[in-house]
Amino acid sequence: MSLSLINEQPAVYEDPLDLMDEIEELKKSREATILAHYYVDGEIQDIADFTGDSLKLARDATRVTTPVIVFAGVHFMGESAKIMNPTKRVLIPDLHAGCSLADSCPPDQLAAFQQELRSQGRNFQTVAYINTSAAVKSLCDWIVTSGNAREIIERVPADREILFVPDQHLGRYLSEVTGRRMILWPGSCMVHEIFSIQDLIRARKNNPGSVVMAHPECPQNILEITDVIGGTEKMRKHVMSVAEPTTFLVATESAMIHPLRKAAPQHTYIPVPGIMASTGETCACNRCPHMARNTLQKLRDCLRDGRPEIEWKDFFTKAREVLDRSLLQM
Length: 330
Ligand code: 13P
Ligand code: SF4
What we know:
Number of strands: 14
Strand order of the largest sheet: 2-1-3-4
Largest sheet: 4 strands, parallel
Structural class: alpha/beta
Oligomer: single chain
Strand content: 15-25%
Bound molecules: 1,3-dihydroxyacetonephosphate, iron/sulfur cluster
């Protein structure tokens, strides 16, 4: 999957306010509902009908009453929305908006590894982070998101080992908080893996009294100096629960600052910068290049043209059982 440039620029400039008006009109005429993840640009979040983390959006998608869903996020999110709502058309603004975590776990490699474990007589269940392809989901027993992972892990029978895919950092963290031993797939998120521990320590020193919030997709060295560990919805709820103006150092995708500011404007939010492994320089790698593929222009085009669309595939049926059991039957 090739990556776009960060903050992809449209070939022809169009006024964002005009685009927003057009999108509002098209939403009505095409009978569509827009869902947007907290990591897409703020202006897209502002015109969406639902915003949220992966768990909230997957659940919101099942409550949509229009025949069309437009998912501003990445491919696995659109796929999950389609799987859980087979009768609806699910459109995504850019089919190439992928995910480094999903890419790190190809279904044939997972199936071969599961087979190897079985041939060794290992008695295990496979738990997949939602950031996986539908083909991978169809090979798993449970799906977790950052918002429900602990509860789901507790549902895995105690006499079973857990194969956790594909995020090694989230898996390590979950193993620590649940006390369950896990076989970890060696995947990671390109955004969360790159935070600079030195910059975070410096930012903490320069901002006395600040609170560090980090996503559990971050490596252990970041989580060890974090005050609030949680997915994006947990971060949002946390800042809303603090009345006293506070400085938060935020170690997640930088678009997350937008919903945090909206939810709790009394605070100061400082995005933790990333660091380039090759040169050691601070970079803008805390912006996910896949999420950044969602632009107002592409959202308008997708509503207008009715494509790109997520098409139903045979293995979605098996993936649906796993998703329903994990996200809806709680
Ligand atoms: P959540 O919003 O569910 O915490 O997920 C973060 C993420 O990386 C989505 O790709
Ligand atoms: Fe995937 Fe990371 Fe981008 Fe989320 S932020 S879509 S986990 S690459």
